Amino acid sequence: ELLENAFDHYNGYREVVTGEGEGLSDFQVHRFRQKCFYLRNAYAIALEKLGAVKPDGTKTKWIDCCRLAVERAKMMGYRGVAADTIMEWNRHFRRDGKFPHPDLYFANGIRPKPKPALFEFFPQAAIDITDFIIKHQD
Question: Tens of pLDDT along 97-136?
Fold first, then answer.
């Protein structure tokens, strides 16, 4: 249900990311929703098929469930995710029921993000660099 809410509800992703998704870009939110979609589907397949005997006499493994989740997603137009990737997402998610925040400072509770030591010695450099970036954005 947690994974389903993450991609069904506007702010549902906040429940599955450390730090409640603070500071995430739109793209990062999209990626977390994709992770939830794939992982939820792999879990649903596992509930149905994990450990079942296949026609060749072997038992269905977790990797098989992940592969089937990828195949089913491809039939709906999703692509670009491998079964190994879903397995890696599962390892991250199963640690504490959340995905790690992509920004390690947020993930470790360090806020605000520290400035590079260079700016402590040359405070004017921060101003000059910011001005340069703003002037050359396009």
Answer: 777 766 666 656 656 666 778 887 888 888 888 888 888 8
Q: How far is CA 129 from CA 73, 112, 123, 134, 136, in A?
A: 44, 19, 10, 9, 11
Q: What is the pTM of this model?
A: 0.69
Residue 14 DSSP symbol: G
Kind and range of the H or E run holding 55: none
Residue 112, preceding bond cis, omega within 30 degrees? yes
Q: What's the rounded Cα separation, in Å, for the pair 122 and 4?
A: 49
Judged by DSSP in three states, 131 sits in helix
CA angle 70, 24, 77 (to 5 degrees): 25
Q: Which of 48, 14, 20 is nearest to 33 (CA)?
A: 14
